[in-house]
Amino acid sequence: MIKARINEIEVEVPAGTSILDAARHVQVKIPTLCKHRDLLPTAACGICVVRNKGGNKLIRACCTPLEEGMQVTTHDREIVDVRRSTLELILSNHPQACLTCGRNGECELQSLAADFNIPMESIKRYVKDVPPDCSTGSIIIDFQKCIKCGRCIQVCQDMQNVWALSFLERGINTRMAPAGDITLAESPCVKCGQCSAHCPTGAIVENDETPAVWEALHDPAKICVVQIAPSVRVTVGEAFGLPPGTNLTKKLYAALRRLGFKAVFDTNFSADLTIVEEASEFIERFVHHRGALPLITSCCPSWTDFMEKNHYDFIDNFSTAKSPQQMLGVLAKTYYAQKLGLDPAKMVVVSIMPCTAKKYELSRTEEMYASGYKDVDIALTTRELARMLKQSGIDFLNLADGKADSLLGDYSGAGTIFGATGGVMEAALRTAYFYATGQKLPKLELESVRGLQGVKEGTVRVGGAPVRVAVAHGLANVEAVLERVRAARKAGGEAPYHFIEVMACPGGCIGGGGQPYGVDNDRRKLRIAGLYQDDRDSTVRCSHENPEVARVYADFLGEPLGPRAHQLLHTRYTARPLYKR
Predict the structure, then answer these.
(1) pLDDT over 90 (residue 413)
(2) Are 193 and 314 contained in the same domain?
(3) pTM of structure
């Protein structure tokens, strides 16, 4: 432990703690732009400078460890003036477009400029005229708004191991761009949106499709229906000042009806459906030896894209089950439309998702048109939904609770934990255990697959046989898991795992690239806790026990993995080049 003083306040922290983090222990806030709690310090912005007594220069708090006996001053006239001058320099290369920026009101640079009372330009503004990159349809890069903090590059290269973004050129001409100066769509980008989630400004944002949704809602010829993803219910409240993890499921149902949607569905329902198909697939492979092991989950479109580009030797291991978003879309335009006598050609299916990659998923392959139409028409992020609710004039937090449409709305606790890392695995094993043994899993909570450790491993005995599982979240953590499998293959031995879950975003969907800003592990834990509480509060906690799922199979789909289920609920994969030409 290290003892020191910060602003004459005694602090004791473990050795190696940065001055920035030590200051937080005594409620001293040192401003910073480049440092994010998820990321290693880069000292790129220079805003966090402080003074150590006896030192002859200002030091950067984010990357300087606190040392025994230090006497640190974080705020005095000179330090504040240096910070203000640094901000003025950053602003001199930044456009004055706050009122039309996607981060207006939620921009870290904007907030700091207000805190330091910078009322006018003191340095001549120089902003290069560079058009934005809108090539992916999911994420937009506005190069003019980049402050060269390096967060997005560190996320893309280190956290996600994608390497779509890098710094180009040097000195005053340094800029962030896709490697090789190509478009983002031509790069290895998997549209996960973690770059946008960690960007402090509006330089990287989701492609805002709310105008298209408003247009559809105002068109009397359209039948607009909507679905909400598992994690959205415990994150959307943050946009309205509520603590992370606050469950607003029923208020979301009510608000979406107020917006004008003719039907409100819950993606938790189709998460249950996904589990029934995926657990059946696992039993086919594990018990009946029909198919390759390990089985790897496939509901994350960023992971699917990453696998097809980087790990296509695992295509035979991938579950062919579509994601819950796509399953609900195809059922809305087939089963639901038939039940109510609706023309699917007039239906507009909108999904509220935590993820920018869900926008990309809508156009992945012809199988996303299994209904004969585009199964899901528009995918909005949680942030886009929050903006729509604020525009609408609805007093969201004071709405009376609403209900989902029962045909595609009832869900089990297993469906809701889909939104957390390890949740898909836990839900699938609850059902797979029943399919293999005819009995309920003795303990439904599988602690070995819970938590924020990058790779989690566990063993569950199913019918007397051990099922070895692995869970990885954050794409950089996937490599170690897959390499273990490859090594076993090469040696001719048994695979180290039977079942693998991968989520591209740290924490799973609760940490998705389209969630409210400010994510870190403290916030991820609270969001996950909200989902687990919803599971505990559920009367039905296993997907195969959801009576509405059973009804869909009896009325329409037939049996799991049957011909109609396979036609509507399954997809296929293909190897893709890492770089598009």
Answers:
(1) yes
(2) no
(3) 0.95
